[in-house]
């Protein structure tokens, strides 16, 4: 204890002696982690502040640092779009590199943190970040979750109506204009059986009748978290099974959430991915050999049914390790996977309640 103190004190002062902000990364101590909590434990005021901050990003001008190389196919950068849209663009830009590949979890951890930092620095947001623990809704049906609240200031909004193309008209984000891939307002078209309804090419699907409410059960999450000791590839293959809780929830929501490239248009994305990041952190905390475990393919195997069968979610070679750089598309810090493996590791500083 005393030794720890002696070692930490000089480090503490050194942190203040060197500039805290650098163009690439911060290396300060994580003394007061920012909190991420379940959406239902936000107060109404906290929910309202959360959406106010997102709307603030949607009212900020385009950030010229956004630098796709190359641009998302068929979707050039729109200089009249907002800072919020820029962040959505970052997610769309490297579709097949950052989904169903080893870097999926690190990229999305970095992405959530980058959005959080923009909410705080550009929009003065001081509240918590959130997650949607869908395991709480598995038995009643996720579409009946109380999170789909239509309140204009504090609600995530409900589902659109068929007669109106499933456009979301209520909640704080209903009617909000987003720019990518083309200007629109968000859509949610729910089905509990997205694979039976062809929302993913059938050649990749092993369980066409999978019901999303079976994929989000607490027992499913427990299996993923408690198993796969020390083996990131095995863990991630089970975590991101195509019919599982990650893709299952996206495709079940349909509309914007069902679009792998542009799903962050719907603020539900950030709560869903908060939960996914939390599940990864739970696995990391389950065993010392899980903490720094990382590896796998660098691009998705969704190019052919054969590649998918061979490689699965953890992706195709060339393989990458912790020194791989997270593609930031000019936005946010440029960091490696190693920098974000610990959510309280200095560069990142948050914790899940
Ligand atoms: C660019 O974004 C603005 C603001 O959302 C929108 O009005 C405009 O139509 C967009 N242009 C294109 C070509 O999509
Ligand atoms: C809504 O989902 C159903 C079933 O998956 C599909 O047939 C329909 O085309 C979708 N409609 C819209 C507007 O997305
Ligand atoms: Cu994604």
From TrEMBL:
Keywords of this entry: Copper, Metal-binding, Signal
Designated name of the protein: Di-copper centre-containing protein
Q: Which Pfam families match?
A: Tyrosinase
Q: What is the lineage of its organism?
A: Eukaryota, Fungi, Dikarya, Basidiomycota, Agaricomycotina
> PROSITE patterns given for it?
TYROSINASE_1, TYROSINASE_2
Keyword tRNA processing included in the entry's annotation: no
InterPro entries registered for this protein in UniProt: Di-copper_centre_dom_sf, Tyrosinase/Hemocyanin, Tyrosinase_Cu-bd
Keyword Metal-binding appears in the UniProt entry: yes
Which residues constitute the signal peptide according to the record? Answer: 1-17
Q: Which PANTHER family match?
A: TYROSINASE FAMILY MEMBER, TYROSINASE-LIKE PROTEIN TYR-1-RELATED
- The record lists the organism as Pterulicium gracile
What's a single GO MF annotation on this record? metal ion binding
In terms of Gene3D superfamilies, this protein maps to: Di-copper center containing domain from catechol oxidase (1.10.1280.10)
């Amino acid at each position: 204890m005393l030794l720890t103190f002696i070692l930490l004190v000089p480090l503490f002062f050194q942190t203040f002696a060197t500039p805290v902000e650098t163009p690439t990364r911060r290396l300060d101590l994580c003394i007061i982690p920012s909190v991420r909590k379940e959406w239902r434990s936000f107060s109404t005021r906290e929910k309202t502040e959360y959406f106010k901050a997102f709307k603030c990003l949607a009212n900020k001008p385009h950030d010229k640092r956004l630098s796709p190389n190359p641009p998302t196919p068929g979707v050039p950068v729109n200089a009249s779009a907002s800072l919020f849209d820029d962040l959505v663009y970052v997610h769309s830009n490297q579709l097949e590199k950052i989904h169903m590949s080893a870097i999926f979890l690190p990229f999305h951890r970095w992405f959530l943190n980058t959005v959080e930092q923009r909410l705080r620095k550009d929009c003065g947001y001081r509240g918590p970040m959130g997650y949607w623990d869908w395991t709480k809704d598995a038995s009643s049906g996720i579409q009946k979750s109380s999170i789909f609240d239509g309140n204009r200031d504090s609600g995530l909004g409900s589902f659109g109506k068929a007669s109106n193309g499933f456009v979301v008209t209520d909640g704080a984000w209903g009617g909000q204009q987003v720019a990518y891939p083309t200007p629109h307002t968000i859509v949610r078209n729910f089905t509990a059986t997205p694979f039976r309804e062809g929302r993913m090419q059938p050649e990749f699907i092993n369980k066409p009748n999978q019901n999303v409410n079976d994929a989000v059960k607490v027992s499913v999450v427990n299996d993923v978290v408690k198993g796969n000791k020390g083996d990131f590839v095995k863990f991630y293959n089970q975590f991101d099974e195509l019919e599982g809780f990650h893709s299952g929830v996206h495709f079940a929501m349909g509309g914007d959430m069902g679009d792998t490239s542009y799903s962050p248009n719907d603020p539900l994305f950030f709560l869903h991915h908060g939960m996914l990041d939390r599940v990864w952190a739970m696995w990391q905390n389950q065993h010392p050999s899980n903490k720094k475990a990382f590896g796998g393919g660098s691009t998705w195997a969704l190019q052919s049914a054969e590649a998918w069968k061979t490689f699965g979610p953890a992706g195709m070679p060339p393989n990458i390790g912790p020194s791989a750089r997270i593609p930031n598309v000019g936005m946010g810090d440029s960091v490696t996977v190693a920098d974000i493996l610990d959510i309280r590791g200095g560069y990142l500083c948050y914790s899940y309640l």
